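Consortium newsletter contribution from the modelling node. Members have asked for a concrete example of what our holo predictions look like. Here is one, prepared for the 6-O-phosphono-beta-D-glucopyranose complex that several groups have been discussing at recent meetings.
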Amino acid sequence: MNNKVKHDFLWGSASAAYQCEGGWNEGGKGLSNWDQFCHSEKNKKGFTGDVAADFYHRYKEDIRMAAEGGQNTLRFSISWTRILPDQSGKVNEEGVNFYKDVLLECKKYGITPNVTLLHYDIPAWLEDMGGYRNPIFADEFAKYCKVVFEQFGELIPLYVTINEITHNAICSYLTGHYPPNIHSTQALCEVGYNMIMAHAKAVVEFRKFNFKNSQVGIVHTTNTVQILKDTPEYRIAQRRCDLFKNKWITDPVILGKFPDDLLPLLKESGIDTSFVKQEDLDLLATTHIDFLGQNCYTRTLARPYREEDGETNYYPNNVGAGQKRLEGYVVKNWFTSDHDLNNPMNAWGREEYPKTVYDMLMGIKKDYGDIPVYITENGCAMYEKVEEDGKIHDQRRIDFMKGYLDWLVKAENEGCNVKGYYAWSTTDCYSWINGYEKRYGLVYIDYESEDLKRIPKDSYYWFKDYIKEHTEGE
Ligand code: BG6
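And here is the predicted structure:
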C-alpha cells in the first residue's frame, strides 16, 4: 500500500444549478419547478435560490479559487430551463453561451468538467403536466439532453444524466417536502420508473453522437445497507432495504434490468405495477453507462419492520439541531431504519461513518465488477460563522473528510476502480428546504455582504495539501 491514488485521479468539488447559480430570471431562463415552489406559499421557510451563491455572475472567481485549491475537476449541473426556457423547444442562446463560458473558464485552468443534466430542477410547465409522474417526462428529458449533446459535444468529457433518482423521488413523492409535495407510495414507484426510463432514453441519445472523448453516467446515492444483528429476519430486512435504497437504480442502469425480486415484492405490497412496459424493459436492456457517480454521505442501518413503525415514509431532518427524531425510513413490511447511537451524528441527525465509502466501493466491485466509479459528493454539514480572526475554522469538516478520504485511498489501493472524488460543495450554497444555515462549502459565503464575499475555509487549504500528499507523482 502506498497511501496514494493514481496520478490521473480527479480531485474536485461539486455544486448544482439551483443551489449555486442564482440569476433565476436572468439571461432568458424559464421557470423551474423549484422557482415555482420557492415562490409559493408552500415554501414555509421562505428561502429561495433566487440569488444562491450567485455563481451565475461569479463563476470566474469560483473556478479560479477551485483551481488555486489544487482541484483538477469540477462537478456542476445545467439548468434545463436556461437551455430550453419553454415548451416550444426553442434553444436559448444566452443560456448556452453562459455554460460555454463556464466550460472555457474550466479549460483555462485544466479543470475537467463533470456535468449533470438534471439535478432536481425540471421545467415548471412540465411539472404542471404531472412532472416525473407523467410518462412523457422521459421523452421530454431525452429531447433536452439531445440539445445539450448537440450544443456542448466533447467540451464535456463526463456527462451525468440524473442526480440521485432515489432521493429526489422519495423527497418529492413520498415525504413530499420537495415539489410537487405529494405523499403516495404508488406515485413514488411510478416516478422512480419514469426517471429510470428518462435516464435510459438520454443514454440512447448520447450514443447516437459516437463521441470519442465523452462518457455518460448517472449519479446515485448509495447508502450501503448494514445490520446490527445477524439473524435471518435482519438479513431479509437488509436485502429489502438494499432494493429500496440502491438496487432498483444500480441494477437497471448497470446490468440493464430490474432485480428479479423487486416486482413481486412491489405487487405483494399492493402497488399496481401496470406502468411497467415490456418495450421499456427491452430498451433498458440495450443501454449501459460508462461510469457510476456515487454520492456518499452515510450508510443505512436496517432492521425488520414492526407493526408499530406505521406507514411507509422517509423522515428527513430539515430542522437541524433541536429536532428529536433521527433521519430514517419506514417501508411497511420491508424494513425500518436502525441507528447506532455510539457513532457521531451531525446536527441534522445523520450518522457520520467514514468506513462506508470503503464498504460501498467494495460492494460495487463485488456486484458490478470494475465499472469506473467517481465519488460525486461527500461532505460535512455544519453551522458556521466567521471567527474573530476573519477565518472559518472548520476542523470538524477536516476530520470528516480525512476519515472518508483515507478509506477511499485504501479502497483504491486494494483494487477498486475509483477514479475521482468531489467534495460537496464548492462554495456554500442553498440546501434544499434547509436554506442557507446548513453549510457544506470548502469556501464560505458571507450572505450578509453586498458582494457575497468568498472566504476559503481551513478545509479548503487542508484539501489542497491532502491532494498533494496522496496523489502519485505529486
Ligand atoms: C445530495 C444532493 O443529496 O445531498 C445535493 O445531491 C444536496 O444537492 C446534498 O445539497 C446535501 O443535502 P442537504 O439536504 O443537506 O443540502
